[in-house]
Amino acid sequence: MLKSSYLRIRNFLGLLGCLLPVLCVAGAAFSPNTVNKGWWYSISVTYYSSPMLTGVLAAVGLFLIVYRSYETVDTVINTIAGFFALCVVCFPCECSWLPETTRVGLFWLPIYITKWVHYATAFLLFLLLAINSIWLFAKGKNPVKNMIYKICGWTMIGALLCFGLNMVWWKVEPMIIFWETVMLLAFGFSWLVKGHCFDKWFGRLNKIRKQVVKNIEIQDEKESENSSENQSENSSENPEEI
């Protein structure tokens, strides 16, 4: 029963992570507040058009905080990540149609303050989620799952770096939402895998992997035997002269 509850929480977190980009953009698209240009350039900017970001990300943060893993390190990382997720919600980023002196967020601080808290906590949030996926999730016995955890984790780190480069140097605004979506999908998929959502598929992949490895070993043995036979034939045909 306890294990089933853990799996449900993991799957719920993974599902929220994967759906967050869709829910935020869809919520903002059907909102009467989306008359401003560039509202869809960033998932974070949809905060000003729709309550979806606040609701979904706050739920993710709370679930990360209350989630208790079998390892203390995992629990600590998830708790801190949950706190950062709540900070991302409470301290909004800037938007093109509001002056940075406008007071926003839970504490009604000026945007020129909240935006830096938003970016810093978002960076730390995804960094911790990536560390969790690469070094903690990937401790299991299933090599296929471990590989997926590492791919998801490094994808988050790569997208995080590209997001930073885009903000500082490239400055292509429509690319912001792309990198945000990549990070969220990688986070969501890793938690869905951790929740055993795709176990049937991974079981099949594991069987295929084992069969491939077995075939390679058999082929290597045959090649080794053939090589030994050829060497023995050559030595019998060309005896050394004394």
Descriptive overview:
Helix 4 (111-136) runs parallel beside helix 6. The longest helix is centred in the C-terminal third of the chain and has 39 residues, at 199-237. Strands 1-2 form a two-stranded antiparallel sheet. The chain contains seven helices and two strands, in the order αααββαααα. The chain has helices at 2-29, 52-66, 72-90, 111-136, 143-170, 174-194, 199-237; strands at 103-104, 109-110. The protein starts with a helix and ends in a 5-residue tail after the last helix. Helices cover 73% and strands 2% of the residues. It has one domain (2-197). The mean pLDDT is 89. A hairpin with a 4-residue loop joins strand 1 and strand 2 (109-110). With 242 residues, the chain is an all-alpha fold.
Structure summary:
The protein is mainly α and 242 residues long. 73% of the residues lie in helices and 2% in strands.
Keywords:
two-stranded antiparallel ribbon; elongated; 7 helices; mainly alpha; 242 residues
Helices, strands, pairings?
Blueprint (H helix, E strand, L loop, with lengths): L1 H28 L22 H15 L5 H19 L12 E2 L4 E2 H26 L6 H28 L3 H21 L4 H39 L5
Antiparallel strand pairs: 1-2
